């Protein structure tokens, strides 16, 4: 059997450059990965929160508080839980059993319902814009009704 003698380890410039080069490559790859991650999260996740100013958030919060109070007074035991300025959940009281069975989907009706108030207001606004009839009486009572409002509404159609 033939053995190969081992060389004594010498600190040549070539061997000390390898770990430094490897460290630079790892850092560059990590930086590149971080940049790609930031770009993906900013472009592809979409805008999760609507762009609202403080006044709009205050109005939505007041509206949700009035919904919460109305449900508490007239909801026959339902409770409205506010999640944020747009979302709320209507829940039946604890211990309620679902007795309504949906024959089509073979499930019991849920005991809590999620609502997005912002989406509801947006849909209502779209529906209102589609169904408002531009009558002469309606436009006469608006300031600059014929000149300003009618032109904007007709342009939306």
TrEMBL record:
Keywords: Membrane, Transmembrane, Transmembrane helix. The chain crosses the membrane at residues 21-44. The keyword Disulfide bond does not apply. The keyword Glycoprotein does not apply. It comes from the Eukaryota. GO terms for biological process: pollen germination; pollen tube growth. InterPro entries: SIA1/STLP5 (IPR044782). One of its GO terms (molecular function) is sialyltransferase activity. PANTHER family: SIALYLTRANSFERASE-LIKE PROTEIN 1. This is Sialyltransferase-like protein 1.
């Amino acid at each position: 059997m033939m053995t190969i003698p081992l060389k004594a380890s010498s600190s040549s410039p070539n061997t000390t450059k390898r770990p430094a080069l490897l460290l630079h490559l790892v850092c560059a790859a990590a930086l590149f990965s971080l940049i790609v991650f930031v770009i993906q999260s900013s472009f592809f996740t979409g805008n999760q929160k609507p762009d609202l100013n403080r006044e709009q958030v205050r109005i939505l919060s007041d509206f949700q508080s009035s919904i919460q109070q109305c449900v508490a007074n007239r909801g026959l035991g339902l409770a409205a839980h506010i999640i944020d300025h747009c979302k709320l959940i209507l829940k039946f009281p604890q211990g309620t059993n679902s007795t309504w069975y949906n024959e089509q989907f073979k499930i019991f009706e849920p005991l809590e319902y999620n609502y997005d108030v912002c989406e509801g207001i947006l849909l209502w606004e779209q529906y209102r814009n589609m169904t408002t009839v531009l009558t002469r009486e309606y436009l006469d009572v608006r300031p600059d009704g014929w000149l300003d409002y009618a032109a904007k509404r007709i342009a939306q159609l």
